[in-house]
């Protein structure tokens, strides 16, 4: 699917905490000056501090207040010069806001589905905490802007609008302190709001605006933020059925990753491209990306990656290999213990969809119906490719009802699936639904 963690829409559109930027002017310059002081105190050259994680040129820009390091890079610099990160940061009277920011960031990251009642209750409490400090947030220091950023996001999720402060105001604040990676993050959030309304063209427009806005600053932007940008553009160009630009941004991302030896988001790119290739029936391309996902899971030994691979293998076996008998066997590779409850539910749903398809293909219709009895489309799935796979499962259920003599149930299910994929780009999944419709309505053959 667009992501094995398709339950985490906010993680797709709320980029990870890539950069920790400082206030423009004295505060920003003092960060660079302190780094330079500690470097000289240790009698280290720019190249020695930069090591293999930064370039000498980037470190020079940081020291001269013309670029800001990510928090990860800041920790790396602190380690290189033998001090704590806190020694590089100017605490002053900002410590209270910084503590609140860390608390809000941690709580926000823990939310999987922001529109569910429990998540909304948590967001209300977070908003109240920020609101108590709202008058102090003037948008001048990084911590102030970041808290205003969260306040704006939470308002948009809870109320569907932003009355006093908009995300464009926040983008302007970030631009003033040269926090260009954060600007991408803000546009991604706006894009995500449109995406959850299935308004793919508007979602794409926001990311196109982001690409244009940061163009003059590309050399100052964190590589991981650029990967986020290209990933979202890849996903959204696919959603609007633009294969040329989809491929363009995929290649740009891979070029960045390979050139700088960065593997952030590579599993997302491989997974997305795999499903896209399977959806087009491209055996060679899908085999290649399945191999890439396998290598990633073997290398990381990550439970999420291994479980995603189990689903990917089952999906590949069903659609490309048509080796239906081996599909149920992949369930033994699912590693669900230790995952969040939402992740367990999502992986179970994905895998059961593949099992139901396999049993239908093997003419075990009652078995397929038993597995698919509780299928629903989660409210946080929005990408046309993901939804097409979901609707395919309802078409499978319709065919099973048809074969077991329950024609009324078959017609109800297939009409739901058929109308669901009508406006989506062509794919194997859409074709399957349309053929199932033809069979149930007019008795034509499917498979």
TrEMBL record:
PROSITE patterns: HTH_CROC1. Pfam families: HTH_3. Keywords: DNA-binding. InterPro entries: Cro/C1-type_HTH, Lambda_DNA-bd_dom_sf, TPR-like_helical_dom_sf, TransReg_Diox_bact_type. Residues 35-88 form the HTH cro/C1-type domain. It comes from the Bacteria. Gene3D superfamilies: Tetratricopeptide repeat domain (1.25.40.10). GO terms for molecular function: DNA binding; DNA-binding transcription factor activity. CDD domains: HTH_XRE. GO terms for cellular component: cytosol. This is XRE family transcriptional regulator. It comes from Ureibacillus yapensis.
